[in-house]
Design brief:
The structure holds two protein chains of two kinds. By secondary structure, chain A is of the alpha/beta class. Helix content of chain A is about 35%, strand content about 30%. Chain A starts with a strand and ends in a 6-residue tail after the last helix. Chain B has a four-stranded mixed sheet with strand order 2-1-3-4, sandwiched between helices. In chain B, helix 3 links the parallel strand 1 and strand 2. The two termini of chain B are about 20 Å apart. The chains are: A alpha/beta, B mainly alpha. Chains A and B meet through helix 3 of A and helix 1 and helix 9 of B.
């Protein structure tokens, strides 16, 4: 798999504050990379450098074989960006918003109605965006990012603050884009979403990438598999006991439990990405 | 790309009810004011006199002769003169000549005259009246009068002789009207840019294939188009387009360049739309000051020449009211162009830092 994004020793400072500290990674074509980290970790600064909004202090970023600093506009014509904060023309309709960007990207025979139908905004495409809910605006942002059928899609917190239905719609659209071969750079602090959508995840903390691998591999490396068994005590109260699945005595422990206790429920449990992030960095993703 | 952005901006401008209404209202209101302002000039200085004892003075003879000209009126009592002075808009100065003052004047002695002025009379008119009174008082003294020498005067008027066709207040108002209408667009343009930056739409644009200079060019064209469109409408409606049309339109076009430079600068220093309003109001007032020197020449002051709009409004005044040609206003236009380009450069450079 060829690389859609290659980052080498990329750094950026806001004055004396080193926001991104010498990071390197690759993203393959058609891959979804989840870029996870708490607020202020350097996620947005990285995205800004990769999309040509900021010039790196040091290092290089090559997207689709082009250097983002030297060939910024060529790169920007082949990527789509869904920003964290809604930045739509609120006094214009959804169709007008999409048509404007289709003209800027010089997309031939662009049909805004079809795309809006796909993101679930059919029927309201002629209304001013100012009347849309947050979820609708977010879907329109994604539609705008898809206008030029980009080879790389940068999604910055695409489902932040959305209801479950809107989140699912957006996740389905991302999965459809992946099927069509689009590379996705997903910035989020929602570990469930990252786990669900990403082929690999990168943890960024204080400007440095502290881990980068498949979610399953990270869980295997850092997490602990366990069984959670809920039992009923003699006095009628319940208690949860944990059985480690990796300590070599699992069978014996499970047997003893089932033999001596009244079992109510049994669940298998594995570490979440947030657990792993905390284990690696000592801080949570929300912080 | 630039055309696409300009069309989008036009759409947004007219969907912003505040600016659409302000623009429309400004146009209608100022055009109405223009036509309501009188186009005639009344330069007469109405004088009122009360003479205590007409038998002991030759003042009444002088006054009676002049009274036929309608701007001198003789009253029978001081009370009647004062009442007329307060109520009539035509009379500006009143003078009481007591018997003692008349005698003293005729005998060449110091005399006391009481003058009354209507409210709002200009200082220059007061000075002129005092000088005239002194001349008349001396002329009533036979000794002084016999020593007065005749003076021969040759008149040479530099530039256009507008004697007999003085400039009306309406004509003086027009350059200010044009400047004001254009300056309002500083607010419109700056708001448009500031909102794009504040809402993040500018970021979405410049991360597309669109280049930053496309963005600036489209905004400059938008600002120039809006300002120029309106002033063009005004010169068409007022019929002044016929006065040196190419020179007039060139001046207006250069003025719109100044407006764009100011709009960029205001947008660059304003973090949000509210700040644009504050800075825009300041610019509006500051830029309008030179226009006052055209409307009220007595207030002209040298420092106003540092205000860039001075060169615009002065050029307009000369073109519209004195039929000035390219050679007459060339220096003004050059300075206007240099200042506008300079402001545009500074505005663009500062604005670029916000991306």
């Amino acid at each position: 798999m060829a690389n859609a994004i290659s980052v080498n020793n990329l750094s950026f400072s806001y004055g004396d504050n080193l926001a991104v500290d010498n990071i390197s990674f690759d993203v393959g074509e058609g891959e979804v990379l989840g870029f996870l980290g708490p607020n202020g970790a350097g996620k947005s600064t990285t995205v800004k450098m990769l999309t040509g909004q900021l010039t790196p202090s040091t290092g290089t970023a090559v997207l689709l074989g082009m250097d983002i600093v030297k060939q910024r506009k060529q790169v920007q014509s082949q990527i789509g960006i869904s920003f964290e904060n809604t930045n739509l023309y609120e006094q214009m309709s959804a169709i007008e918003n999409l048509d404007l960007f289709a003209k800027l990207y010089k997309v031939p025979n662009f049909n805004a109605t079809d795309l809006l139908q796909k993101v679930g905004l059919g029927g309201r495409e002629k209304e001013p965006v100012s009347g849309y809910s947050k979820g609708m605006k977010q879907r329109l942002m994604l539609a705008r990012a898809l206008v030029s059928n980009p080879k790389i899609l940068f999604l910055d917190e695409p489902t932040d603050g959305l209801d479950p239905v809107s989140s699912q719609t957006i996740q389905a659209l991302i999965q459809e884009a992946v099927k069509n071969g689009t590379t996705i750079f997903l910035t989020t602090h929602d570990m469930v979403e990252a786990d669900k959508l990403s082929n690999r995840v990168a943890f960024i903390n204080q400007g440095q990438i502290v881990a980068l691998d498949k979610p399953s591999a990270l869980k295997q490396q850092y997490g602990q598999r366990a069984l959670k068994v809920e039992i009923e005590l003699a006095n009628g109260e319940t208690e949860v006991r944990e059985v480690n699945l990796d300590d070599g005595q699992t069978a014996q422990n499970v047997f003893e439990l089932f033999k001596n206790e009244k079992i109510i429920t049994v669940h298998s449990e594995e570490a979440t990405l947030e657990d792993i992030f905390i284990e690696i960095t000592g801080r949570g993703l929300q912080g | 790309m630039i055309g696409t952005l300009v069309l989008k901006d036009l759409k947004l401008f007219f969907r912003n009810q505040f600016f659409a209404v302000i623009t429309g209202l400004t146009l209608v209101m100022f055009t109405a004011i223009y036509f309501l302002i009188p186009n005639e000039v009344n330069n007469s200085l109405g004088l009122a006199f009360y003479i205590e004892n007409p038998d002991v003075t030759v003042f009444d003879e002088l006054i009676t002769e002049e009274a036929e000209a309608d701007n001198l009126q003789l009253f029978d009592s001081e009370e009647a003169m004062l009442a007329a002075l307060e109520e009539s808009g035509d009379l500006l100065v009143g003078l009481t000549i007591t018997e003692a003052a008349a005698l003293a004047s005729m005998n060449g002695e110091p005399a006391e005259f009481q003058a009354y002025y209507a409210p709002g009379i200009p200082a220059e008119a007061k000075e002129m009246f005092a000088d005239t009174l002194e001349l008349i008082a001396n002329a009533t003294n036979p000794t002084v009068a016999s020593n007065l020498k005749r003076m021969n005067q040759t008149e040479i008027v530099l530039g256009n002789d507008i004697l007999g066709t003085p400039i009306s207040f309406r004509e003086r108002f027009l350059p200010m009207l044009l400047l004001f209408i254009m300056t309002v667009e500083v607010l419109g343009l700056a708001t448009l840019i500031a909102r794009e930056i504040e809402s993040g739409t500018a970021r979405a644009l410049v991360t597309s294939p669109l280049r930053l200079h496309h963005f600036f060019t489209s905004k400059a064209l938008m600002g120039m188009g809006l300002a120029f469109g309106q002033v063009l409408l005004i010169v068409l409606v007022t019929g002044t387009i016929t006065t040196s049309p190419i020179l007039l339109l060139t001046t207006l076009l250069l003025g719109t360049l100044l407006i764009v430079g100011l709009g960029f600068f205001v947008a660059a220093i304003s973090p949000d739309a509210t700040s644009v309003t504050a800075w825009g109001a300041f610019v509006l007032i500051f830029m309008t000051i030179p226009a006052i020197t055209v409307m009220l020449p007595g207030l002209a002051s040298g420092w106003m020449e540092i205000v860039p709009s001075f060169y615009f409004v002065d050029a307009l005044h000369q073109i519209l009211n004195f039929n000035a040609g390219w050679a007459d206003v060339g220096q003004n236009l050059l300075l206007l162009f240099v200042t506008s380009v300079g402001l545009l450069g500074i505005g663009t450079a500062v604005l670029r830092r916000r991306f």
